[in-house]
Amino acid sequence: MLVRQLYDHESSTYTYLVADLAAGAAALIDPVAEQLERDLALVGELGLELRLVLDTHVHADHVTAAGALRARTGARTAASCRGAPCVDVPLDAGARLEVGGVTL
Known about the structure:
Elements: E1 2-8, E2 13-20, E3 25-29, H1 36-45, E4 49-54, H2 60-73, E5 76-80, E6 89-91, E7 98-99, E8 102-103
Parallel strand pairs: 3-4, 4-5, 5-6
Antiparallel strand pairs: 1-2, 2-3, 7-8
C-alpha cells in the first residue's frame, strides 16, 4: 500500500493519494481543483489507474475537483450522503470502499 500526502499552499489543503501498487489502483482523498494536473501526473508517473475520488467534507474546491477527475478518468466519486448529492457513491457512517486490495 502506498500513502502519499500532498499539499496546496494557496488553500492550505492536504490531499492524499492511497494506492494498491500491486493492483495498480489508486484513490485521491480531498483533491483541490487547482492541483488536478499535479495529482494526475503523479498517478501517471506511478503507473496507477485512478478509480476513486473521496471527499471527506464538502468544500467547493473538493467537489469541483472530484467532478473534473471523474470526467477525465472515469473514477467513481464518493462523499457523505449528507453532503454533495452529485457523487456516485453516497456514504453512511461505517461505509467501506475498496481500491484494489486496500479498504478505506
